[in-house]
Design goal:
This protein is of the alpha/beta class. The chain has 31 helices and ten strands. The strands form two sheets. The chain has a six-stranded mixed beta sheet, with helices on both faces. α22 links the parallel β5 and β6. Keywords: Exonuclease, Hydrolase, Nuclease. GO terms for molecular function: 3'-5' exonuclease activity; nucleic acid binding. This is MUT7 Exonuclease.
Length: 693
């Protein structure tokens, strides 16, 4: 706003007998103020707010102010968001009669203005005197979950009431139509967004945001555990990618003594095992005999220790034979050290913190299977050429806390990552460091000081022939390799044995299989790096691989272990494209009008945002198969924007550089910036809203 206009506005207020009444007259007679952005009405209002501070005698009181407040309330439902706070302040709405304000909000609600009623309630802090279920239900039906979060944000009691309501709606057998029936004629009603799956996700988001005890929502928690149970049965009996001991650990911790889950466990056991197998696992998980079908109960009575030994031996024989087809650790078992004391860890430091050292670094944590909270690192693996150190992080942090030397462990890790003379190898380091920061707050922001880091996730996209299809056809395996295992298979000849990946890494003592898996995961990085540096050309990489990689690390690569989701780790290169090995510059700048994309159906928000910036966008519908994106891209010469598992499939169906994977955890604006930067799209003011929305 120009200085001249501001001065003119202030002179105008000084000439008015009643500036507050004058502003209302202006706003009531003008349509300009109802638009978005900084309208003339907005400028006048904010200037009056400042002018009043300089003239304390101006504000009204008594009957006159009440009349002005009543007039203002009649206008507020049409008021743009940026005018609410200034107007509420100028007319001192917080001092108005609370019952009168509640009555006005109730009137808005009854007229069907649910969003306006909620926003005004938040601004006037009326929530404690309102029914949280009544206020939030229509907002959820209109897919306004963010407004619901804001509505309860400052009131822990309302947060608990809302969570209990959502949990009640997710109870098995509850009919959601009983909730939706009174709102059939609701504008912007989105019934597809109102189901147990969506509500469960909202519950977990609220639990995490407001740090509420998950025990408050037993139905949602049980449903999530049930999905975990089904997933574990799939991993063990369909994919056959989990060892029996590992599977048993997770089944036991998932089911616990919950009778409802125990019932589902028994049903699943009978679908996948015979009566004897079901009895053995029912015994292992301490399922009460009265919950078992007669055939299983009879087997349980006859079950002897010897039977179990024989069963386990059979499984172990099968599994040990399978390991021959996987990567084998080339160092003796006695060179793998499990460290639980500071004395042992100091010896490790002295060997690791040597100039010129090359170390493989990896981390493990207990999979959360979508439950609340960020994963906390349970094991830190550091591999040298002749030995591997496995650091028991929870135990070491506990000891440091007891010794009042909490900074010891973070200091060592910071020294390691910030030393340019030590080459650190990892795979998806951003995910590891994020979990490390959640485990030890002193390590937050450490990625800014990292030097001498090589993230092999940035390499696997560049390696010739590295794809799911290649792995599948060449090796003839039923389950195609993914991520690091695929890179190991291509460079070293055999994949990693990943059956211990989804282990309970917090349980002590670790099983022998876990120790070998953890050591292999870190050590294989050394062998891959050595092989690629010796002969980069045979893998389609730049000959000066060492110089092009050391010191570069991915700023936001894909999290290596997607264990907060109930799925195996996704294929490599999904959310981070990695530095090009060729010494080519960035693509030539183009305008949004020249940039055509097709957005996969999980990126509709990104597509709409890019369209606002003038990009030519086609969006897949929710029911469309991901492969449709490739058809459209080929027919119309568009770039595919996708995320997650579809990326690996789609990128093989279009030309190089014509498929880009977006980080799904970011908001549409950040995703758009990532896309524009990658393709060097230059947006000008005239591009914005140049296309029909």
């Amino acid at each position: 706003v120009s200085r001249q206009l501001k001065e003119e506005i202030r002179r105008g207020f000084a000439r008015l007998e009643d500036p507050l009444a004058g502003l209302l007259v202006m706003l009531e007679s003008s349509s300009d103020w109802k638009g978005k952005g900084h309208s003339l009405g907005y400028c006048i209002t904010t200037e009056l707010q400042l002018w009043i501070k300089a003239h304390p005698a101006v504000p009204q009181s008594g009957t006159k102010l009440k009349k002005l407040q009543a007039r203002l309330l009649g206008m507020l439902s049409q008021c743009p968001a940026n005018l609410l706070d200034p107007l509420i302040s100028i007319y001192q709405l917080h001092t108005a009669d609370r019952n009168y304000l509640l009555e006005h909000v109730s009137h808005l609600y009854l007229q069907g203005n649910y969003k306006e009623a909620a926003i005004l309630s938040i601004k006037l802090k009326l929530q404690p005197d309102q029914d949280v279920e009544k206020m939030c239900t229509p907002l959820l039906l209109q897919d306004k979950a963010n407004l619901v979060e804001d509505y309860v944000a400052e009131y822990p009691e309302l947060q608990r009431k809302l969570l209990q309501t959502l949990d009640r709606w997710c109870e098995p057998g509850f009919n959601l139509r009983d909730i939706t029936r009174p709102y059939q004629g609701l504008s912007r009603y989105k019934p597809e967004k109102f189901n147990c799956r969506v509500l469960s996700k909202l519950v977990f988001r609220l639990l995490e945001r407001f740090n509420v005890d998950p025990a408050l929502c037993p139905n949602v928690i049980n449903q999530r555990h049930l999905r975990t149970l089904k997933y574990l049965f799939y991993k063990r009996f369909v994919e056959k990618t989990m060892t029996e001991e590992n599977w048993g650990d997770h089944i036991q911790s998932t089911v616990g003594d919950n009778r409802w889950l125990q019932g589902h466990l028994v049903q699943s056991l009978l679908r996948h095992c015979d009566a004897r197998g079901a009895a053995r696992w029912a015994q292992h998980c301490q399922v009460p005999p009265e919950m078992l079908p007669q055939a299983v109960a009879e087997e349980l009575q006859e079950l002897h220790i010897q039977d179990r030994v024989e069963e386990v031996t059979k499984a172990d024989n099968y599994e040990s034979s399978k390991k021959k087809d996987c990567y084998q650790l080339p160092i003796p078992r006695e060179n793998i050290h499990f460290l639980q004391t500071w004395e042992e860890t100091l010896q490790c430091w002295q060997k690791v913190l040597q100039p010129g050292q090359v170390v493989g670094v990896d981390m493990e944590w207990k999979p959360s299977f979508g439950m609340v909270g960020k994963p906390r690192v349970a094991l830190l693996q550091i591999a040298l050429k002749d030995e591997v150190f496995l650091l028991d992080l929870p135990r070491l942090l506990e000891q440091a806390e007891a010794d009042r030397e909490k900074e010891k462990l973070p200091r060592f890790i910071q020294m390691l990552y910030s030393d340019a003379a030590i080459t650190k190898l990892g795979y998806g380091m951003s995910g590891d460091l994020s979990s490390l920061a959640a485990t030890c707050s002193a390590l937050k922001g450490m990625e800014k000081q990292m030097q001498g880091v090589v993230d092999l996730l940035a390499v696997d996209k560049q390696v010739d022939g590295l794809s799911l299809e290649h792995s599948h056809e060449e090796k003839g395996v039923r389950q195609p390799e993914k991520g690091l295992s695929l890179l190991v298979q291509h460079v070293l000849g055999k994949p990693l044995d990943k059956r211990e990946q989804l282990s309970n890494w917090e349980k002590r003592p670790l099983r022998e299989e876990q120790i070998l898996y953890a050591a292999s995961d870190a050590y294989c990085l050394l062998e891959i790096y050595e092989r690629l540096c010796k002969d980069p050309e045979s893998f389609g990489l730049d000959s000066d691989l060492t110089e092009s990689l050391v010191g570069k690390h991915s700023k936001k690569p894909r999290t290596k272990k997607q264990l907060n989701k109930q799925e195996a780790p996704a294929p490599s290169g999904q959310e981070y494209q990695g530095p090009r090995m060729e010494a080519s510059g960035p693509p030539a700048p183009i305008s949004p009008q020249e940039f055509s994309v097709v957005c996969d159906n999980m990126l509709q928000g990104l597509g709409r945002y890019l369209r606002c910036l003038g990009v030519d966008v086609r969006l897949l519908d929710n029911e469309d198969d991901h492969r449709k994106a490739a058809e459209i891209a080929r027919q119309e010469g568009r770039v595919i924007l996708t995320s997650g598992l579809p990326y690996q499939t789609l990128r093989s169906q279009v030309g190089e550089g014509r498929c880009f994977s977006v980080n799904c955890s970011e908001k549409a604006k950040e995703q758009a910036l990532q896309v524009l930067k990658h393709f060097n799209v230059q947006v000008s003011l005239s591009d914005i809203f140049s296309r029909c929305q």
